[in-house]
Amino acid sequence: VLSVIPVIVLFAIFQKYLVSGITAGAVKG
To answer: Cα(25)–Cα(29) distance, rounded to whole angstroms?
Structure first.
């Protein structure tokens, strides 16, 4: 179970980074 925690954290960070990157790209056009 403990080994799953880092994966979830990394996924959350990656998702935030991905979403912010997409929105930034959309704003830049």
So the answer is: 6
Task: Give the pLDDT of residue 1.
Answer: 77
Distance CA 9, CA 13 (A): 6
For the segment 1-23, what is each residue's pLDDT rounded down to a tens digit? 789 999 999 999 999 999 888 88
Interatomic CA distance for residues 20 and 2, integer angstroms: 28
Provide the whole-model pTM: 0.54
Q: What CA–CA distances, in Å, run from 23 to 3, 15, 29? A: 31, 12, 10
Which residue, 25, 4, 29, is CA-closest to 12? Answer: 4
